[in-house]
Amino acid sequence: MSQAGSIRPIEDYALIGSTCSAALVHRDGTIAWLCLPRFDSDAIFASLLGTEENGEWTLCAKDGGVRTSRRYWPDTMILETLIESDTGKARVLDFMPRPAHGGGTAEVVRIVEGIEGRVALKTEIRLRFNYGLTVPWVQRKEGMIVAVAGPDAVRLSSSIDLTSFDFATGADFHVEADQRVAFTLEWHPAHVEAPLPRDPFALLRRTHREWTEWMESCTVEGPYEAIARRSLTTLKAMTFHPSGGIVAAPTTSLPEMPGGVRNWDYRFCWLRDAVLTIYALAGSGFRQEASDWRWWLMRAVAGSADRMQIMYGLTGEQRLVETELDHLTGYEGSRPVRIGNAAHAQIQLDVYGSVLGAFDAARRGGLPDMEVVWPLERAIADNLLAAWREKDSGLWEVRGAPQHFVHSKVMCWFAFDRLVASAEDFGLEGPIETWRAARDEIHAQVCEQGFDAASNSFVQYYGADRVDAALLRIATLGFLPADDPRVVGTIARVERDLLRHGVVYRYLTDGESDGLPGSEGAFLACSFWLCEAYALSGRDEEARRFFEHLLGFANDLGLFAEEYDPVAGRQLGNFPQAFSHFALINAVHTLAGARGGATGNLAADPGSGD
Q: What does DSSP say about strands 30-35 and 56-61: parallel, antiparallel, or unpaired?
């Protein structure tokens, strides 16, 4: 059981997911975070951000001194935890099947299987709705436990008898060789009669088949195939299947530094991920997922090209009001605990390049029906013709004063560059000369005002004397060749100022432009960007060594959080983080030359190798 103040490292959790919602399972068998029926729904188990009284589900050996190990079944999100005691051996299978009844139910299934001997186990379920605040009304119906509070109801069924005690439900039991015990937790709307429970063992077989059949589309090969496949499976689990949107992370308020205030809700879809998503998915063989993401993008920004947000909800919701949950103590005392994200109201110019770059990549990748998107692209470009001159909050959503961030300007250049390329290469109509002139003006301005000749490096924002790891993408975007002295100089300064203890920090957090107190861990995506920068500039061996070094920061299941603390040797931030896994996959492609090798950039056809 979790207690206030106890330390459960982020990397000790595993993800299970249904492509609608997800849960975090600790290596000790505790489900400490679960939102149903969607990623952004109120948590039913929230001890991750508080204590056991905020809800959790334990399933573990009854006696101490056992040995445990865990793994995912290959190419699936089915988690297997092996329990070995002096008297026997058993395993626990945790998974979330695809929702049934048109999304009207959502399930978590836990199956215990005896392997040899006899193993004594125990389970305890503390249901707490509304992010751990509400104790539901619990009753027993037809041998099952039913809990109701407000709009939500859950039903707990099992092949063993469960008893209620101290506002919890549980049992002590044992399994012997070839014996199986199943538990199913089902959510359904409180005002709707629940359908008959589905067979948990049939669901296991079906879920295994669905995952392995899905992975048959994967085209990644080479020495890093295994880690890329795990990252792709993780990203699929973080996809909201009904809309095609991909959440940045399935969690909220896991801190960027324990005890600090940099705790954000990441259960939304970020436009900054748009072009990286297309390349990672389409370049790995998953054209359907790339297409679904493309349509999510179009729907999200449709009708609001003049006021694009930096993020939207799972189906394109625009209002993501930020609220603090005072009743939760926070992960390792990190407060406030936030739901919603006020950054959705920020101006971030980089999203223009990410969205227009994603549409261009989709077109080059051969995704169908792209002619439907072109009018929207033109509308976005019309707004960008004026907007690119403004200050913004930058890629990292700083909460200080807006600046002319160099990365943002480069992404505006990228937006016009991709528009011109799409129009010319695919015979599309538009004011090409106007776009070309804007592209060239931005390029000249960035090279003049965003470059520091004394250090031979681009800087974080105009007039700054500091760098930003996002500058590593200059060559990847095609803004300048990888062997340009200014690019080489920028890499060198990032290495000098931001590469510490073998991992890259995204910028200096001294309050000058950040607007927040405290520090943070190193941003893992930035470290993978340095791998790409090495590879594109011809430093192939360094790129490979650094990439393999970074793989050591994954947990035992191949999962990456947002950040890493190399001093404490632990992961930080929301977990798992889509940005980290996208960056890993694209680094694999770059190392393999799949995006054009030493001359490659985000103008290449995804997966073409051109």
A: antiparallel
Helix (H) / strand (E) containing 144: strand 144-149
| Residue-wise pLDDT tens digits, 283-295 | 999 999 999 999 9
Q: What is the identity of the amino acid at 323?
A: T
**Amino acid letter for position 135:** V
Domains and CATH numbers, the chain: 10-192+201-214 (2.70.98), 217-599 (1.50.10.10)
Closest CA to 607 of 214, 286, 358: 286
What strands lie across the sheet with 570-572, from one edge to the other? 522-523, 563-565, 570-572
Please say whether the beta carbons of 78 and 72 come within 8 A: yes
Type of residue numbered 298: M
Cα 24 from Cα 329, distance rounded (Å): 18
Confidence (pLDDT) at 89: 97
Average pLDDT over residues 356-364: 96
In three-state secondary structure terms, 123 is strand
- Tokens representing 29? 């068998």
Residues contacting residue 64 through CB under 8 Å, at least 6 positions apart = none
Query: 295-304: long-range contacts (C-beta < 8 A, 24 or more apart)?
Result: 295/244, 296/243, 296/244, 296/245, 296/269, 297/271, 297/355, 297/358, 297/359, 298/372, 298/373, 298/376, 299/243, 300/245, 300/269, 300/271, 301/271, 301/355, 301/376, 301/380, 302/376
Task: State the pTM of this model.
Answer: 0.95
Structure tokens at 504: 């890259």
Give the tokens for residue 12: 């000790």
Q: What is the pLDDT of residue 515?
A: 62
Whole-angstrom Cα distance, residue 313 to residue 311?
7
* Alpha carbons 144 and 383: distance in angstroms, whole number: 57
Q: Report the 10 Å Cβ neighbour count for 205.
A: 10
**Alpha-carbon span 581 to 360, nearest angstrom:** 22
